[in-house]
Amino acid sequence: MTPDRELLLTLTRRHFFGRTATGLGAAALASLLPKSAQAAGGLEGLPHFAPKAKRVILLHQSGGPSQLDTFDYKPGLSKHRGIDLPDSVRMGQRITGMTSGQSTLPVAPSNFSFQRYGETGTWVSELLPHTAKIVDDLAIIKTMHTEAINHDPAITFFQSGFQQPGRPSMGAWVSYGLGSENENLPSFIVLLSQAHALNTDQPLFSRLWGSGFLPSSHQGVKLRAGADPVLFLNDPPGIEQDTRRSMLDAIERLNRLKHRAFGDPEIESRIAQYEMAYRMQTSVPDLVDLGQEPESTFANYGPESRKPGTYAANCLLARRLAERGVRFIQLYHRGWDQHNDLPRDLRLQCAGTDQPTAALVADLKQRGLLDETLVVWGGEFGRTVYCQGRLTETNYGRDHHPRNFVMWAAGGGIKAGARVGETDEFSYNVTADPVHVHDLQATILHCLGIDHKRLTYKFQGRHFRLTDVHGKLIKPILA
Amino acid sequence: MLRLTFLSIAGAAVLAGAPGVDFNREIRPILSDKCFHCHGPDAATRMANLRLDTEEGARAVIEAGNSGKSRLFARISHEKRPLRMPPPTSGLNLTDAQVATLKRWIDEGAKWDEHWAYRAPKRPALPVVKAKAWPRTPVDQFILARLEREGLKPAKEAPRETLIRRLSFDLTGLPPTPAEVAAFVNDRAAGAYERLVDRLLASPHYGERMAMEWLDLARYADTHGFHIDSHRDMWPWRDWVIRAFNGNQPFDQFTVGQLAGDLLPGATLDQRIASGFNRNHMINFEGGAIPEEYQTEYVVDRVDTTATVWMGLTMGCARCHDHKYDPISQKDFYRFGAFFNTVSEEGLDGRYGNAKPFLPLPDDAQQRRMDEIDARLKARSAELDYELLELLLRLWHDERFHRTPASPVEGLRAWYELDGNLSDTSGRFLHGRLLTGDIAYGAAPVRNGANFDSATVAEFPAAALDVSQPFSVSLWVRAGRQQGQPLLQQLDLSGAGPKGFELAIVTPRTLPRLRRGHPIEVRLLGGEPGRSLIVRSRGYVFIQNSSHHIALAGDGSGRAAGLRLYVDGKPVEIETVEDALPAGFRVEAPVTIGAARPGPPFKGRVDDLRFYNRPLSEAEVERLAVHYPVEVILATPGKRNREAAGILRDYFLKYEAPEYFRTAYTELLALRERRIDLVEEIPTAMVMDEMEEPRDTYLLGRGDYTQKVEKVTPGVPAMLPPLPASAPANRLTLARWLASAEHPLTARVAVNRYWQMLFGHGIVKTSEDFGSQGEPPVHSELLDWLAVEFVESGWDVKALLRLIVSSAAYRQRSQVTPALYERDPENRLLARGPRQRLPAEMIRDNALAASGLLVKTIGGPSVRPYQPPGLWEELAFGEAFTAQEYEQDHGDKLYRRAMYTFWKRTAPPASLVTFDAPDREKCVSRRAVTNTPLQALATLNDPTYVEAARHLAARVLSEPAARTSDARLRHAFQLVMARPPQPQELRILREALAHQTAVYRRSPDAAAKLLGVGEKPAGEAMEAPLLAAWTNVCTILLNLDETVTKE
């Protein structure tokens, strides 16, 4: 993105909203741009090629779910129970300050049982019975790996492609590149839900959905439980809708006078934004009104889906956002940081998320939306095979493990049933087909019809991109 | 494609200057952006051994004057795409226009020039202009010369109302009052404008306005930013910035103070505070993070920020490899970093507020209190004869060693010492057993204790405890985070509801010194709702991760009045939650620890658990909590560890030593407590310092802290002037070097940013990048002229601003015609005055000022105005850290200027961020300006603005001089827009007022609701429907484009 193109975009928007624009530029723009791009300000030339998915639902499980207790089945581990992790496995890799002081790193096999499911015969833990039922729809990557070993840098890296703050988040990049399909809703929406686990959960940061150096209009908009789903959406008490309408009409008339006198297209743009704000006051309540859903929906997503702000309710909202064409839908569920009490807390986390996650995929599929919606599930890293704290028959904890973890993807552009990667018998090292976080990011963009090397933004003289200078497509999971 | 061409022409037209191709303006940007990546300064990735960033390199492929014979031109114009440069794989392309420009440049002789920004500016001659009457300042001659060359004419001077509003926002960030507007409009004497400028520059709010820009650059915030993101205090530094601007501290001193104030000979307190500039970066203490990793990041941030702020250089690009575009090697990056790597900081710090090093900043009263405490501490300490004390302690110890530890045994129903098993040692054989999980026995107050994890459940026989009769429970507990779970239970679940007894640790809060305290709750559950006895300690007496003795004594009455709760041997005050236990209450069930009902099971350490069939007396409880554990230690043979020795010594001094010692010791302890409290109360500011033994700095391979490639010494990039050989290569020398008249970048970068502040765009639009990838200056001679002027004025910031705002260019009207807009959409040529949306802070301050709500206090700790609930909590870690829960302020603190809003980096102030305020994680040199529906929602519905509208309404309604509606509308309009309304505007407002009045006359209830928004009353005596109608009219005014725009 050169400054010229940045300017061009500004102009595009202005001309679109403008009444005074004349001449070659305006005429050319009107005829050349697709309607959606005009409305929502995606970049010219994007998508780079025919997209397989129109939108993304990213189900981020914040804290780092244990791959060993969910998808990465290691039946051979029981014979190593309690032994110190062999140096031949650790290979001198750095570990966090939380376990580097432990005198031993005893191997902790999973306490949960695994079974094969689906035509793919995929091993899934007893903790995820609902996910097990849709496992044939999923492409599962067992060999995700990342560079950071602590939450802040790891989750920042996952969302922005860089461990340190300052870069735009994935959703901001997509909003910037593709714009929105829906004029009445933001193109990048974020939903947060709180832990089911009982131990402390990790914080989140607004930078995770921030726009970094991109214009701040691309930052994720939080959709919150409660009276104001979008900040300041509701009129103050004592202002009825027609009262507000008459106020907006007066504002518009005054702004039009101003525009006539000053000619600044920015005034026209502001008039349009006030209209969109007014439309959002209808479109957002309609979006979050789950009263329109039949009983069967709540049965599918589970009882918590009736309770606003839960992960289950957010999964249901994700489907409703997908139906409305929101481009990037980002869920964060907290509480996956099982340093201790993993058997108790992981069970709680899974019990709270398994059913709605699976229901979302099934629901999208049943509505014919899954083909055009990319759904991605996973956390910022995995967990160690060795126990943090005391290992007992019934209890153990696991530290952060960046060297391999599990993620899955489903839907638009994804080959259902694909299985990628092998790990060693300790689930400690990748033995075949490593997949880097940048690879996943490149692949997500690819499904949206974006070449990750060509979606760039010039800042401080450099053409930045989501995948930094890395990233290659995960070909085996692409349909 | 058509679009692109159209715009490229427009863009190029603005940037192009004189006839003939200008290398720096037209050629270097193309070579840099399209070629340097593979043919630039980075030797590691240079292709075909060709470099185009140096003249020598370029000459190898250019035949000056003959593009046809130049290999460069052949390759960029090759017919076959695969052979055409830049190659398809690069993702880069040259436009036809760019190829044509390069061709023209070669044909004109391929004149090479060094990068303009690395050459010290020289004062250029003023250009000759035709319209000699227009220029008011030398600035105007440069602007006008360019306009005349472009065939454009400057705009007329803006009306005085517009000028005073523009100037007031630009120089103070606040709108002018109606009186100020009237005074200026009516001041027909010569020099009215100059007097106005002088008045604004002398305003104490000038410093605040200038600090606003500086806080973005300095990445100033009130929290640490990484992970837990807890509280820090850098407002003393922020207040110093405001004072420095108000005192018009010359920019060179301002620079030296902030980079190296601590190293100045005889550094004053202010100079040391100033050095906090480079401590404003984010700081981490995430559990498990590696200190060296983050200490490295702090240094990197200082390099990035310092280079951006003073030099407009993107040095950060050279962290992992040589810079791709500018002559900055990776080694240069780390040599620059070496200046900032010798602070006595820790990689992980900040849990308790400011991270080391920091300065305490007590006020006079605090200093006096501290001196007094210290004097008394010293005196008391001196009174204690330690040798004698040791002797007495040993005598006491030897005498007491053989005594059997004594604790109450009468009425003991069961006693679990928990030293290695669950046996009952009371002699009644009511042994406990493990139901699930297991127990680790380890050191505890009384020998060993039992550690429960979340899977452990232990059970003790029902006969151990009967709470329907007189009883006591006594135990030691230490636990981490608790969520209201029962610690100990005796429950009968066979009925409709749970029946029985629970001892629980409930909802915590954070206490001073970051301790997390819980109340203790006792529940006798009657089996159905509303039929229980529940009492709770008033205080947050149970501190997480500390060992506590808890004792509960009941008289068997089943009434709240019959219960006594003791913590650490002392009775605690209790409050009654419910006192309705049915008569005949009795429970037959085993006692459990670790069983949840429902909810999280107890996790922690339990020791010396006892049940009695009688209420223990206070003295008995004290014996169990205080004397008995010490006697156990005393009676234990063998060598004592330090902890045990400490306990014995403390006990001796409190209870057994001669009275003289006991008194001195008690006071000593009290003084120490007071000192800790006082230290917590005294503000501090993080500052720079130098380690006594400086850290070594290394070139880090790929920028990775683990890959130390080569030790480096402090130094600066070679394309810049050298450091003076006579001075030590330290931060102070670096700061003075940056602030020297010879530095090619410092003055240019500074004046460019001030230009940006006033006109919306810098002369160099990329104010953060003066390198070859930055945009070349649109008026390069003007930039140099201003830079030289700035330095020669003695780096006088006020003089610089006065010069620019006095120009005819600045004073133009900002109206634009479609033709001019098409020609120069961003107003780079300044054929019209600046017109930009106000920064986030000013939008809020304007509304507060117009309504009369604004509290103009300058400086002090940051404040917490209205904010939608939950914005911090939904993200925060919580627990025993600061800045995790948003506690909104009240009163004046709701109405301070926006720049004083508490800035939590991971959840920055919502309304401000909506208007493009940055999160302050990194240095920001220019903000984006967006126009979004969320902005409309904020100014329409944020209680801040609704309340401002109500106050504005009450203000105009109570203005005695304005009696008619029209007069009031004019007054309101004047307060918000600093000008009277046009007749058409007035008509629309009149209609709106009539409509709103009718609405609220019909529904006075709605009026009352609207008027209830916001905490500060106004116009209570006024007729509610009328005030509500006016409130909405004022909301209309606060939402107009002109209101949020500087025009």
How would you characterize the overall build of this protein?
The complex is a heterodimer of chains A (479) and B (1047). Chain A has a single domain (3-19, 36-232, 304-477), classed as Alkaline Phosphatase, subunit A, CATH 3.40.720. Chain A has 13 helices and 17 strands. Chain A has helices at residues 3-17, 23-32, 35-40, 87-90, 129-133, 151-160, 170-178, 241-262, 265-288, 295-301, 311-323, 342-366, 437-447, and strands spanning 55-61, 114-117, 122-125, 139-145, 188-193, 221-222, 328-333, 373-378, 382-387, 398-401, 405-411, 419-420, 422-423, 430-432, 435-436, 457-459, 462-464. In chain A, strands 1, 4, 5, 6, 7, 8, 11, 12 and 15 form a nine-stranded mixed beta sheet that branches. In chain A, α8 packs antiparallel against α9 (265-288). Chain A is globular, with a radius of gyration of 24 Å. With 1047 residues, chain B is α+β, with helices and mostly antiparallel strands. Helix content of chain B is 39%, strand content 11%. Chain B contains 34 helices and 25 strands. In chain B, strands 2, 4, 5, 7, 15, 16, 17 and 20 form an eight-stranded antiparallel beta sheet that branches. In chain B, β4 and β5 (448-452) form a beta hairpin. In chain B, α8 (160-172) crosses α9 (178-186), α29 crosses α30 and α30 packs across α31. The longest helix of chain B is centred in the middle third of the chain and has 23 residues, at 659-681. Chain B starts with a helix and ends with a strand. Mean pLDDT of chain B is 93; it is low at 1-13. The chains are: A alpha/beta (479), B alpha+beta (1047).
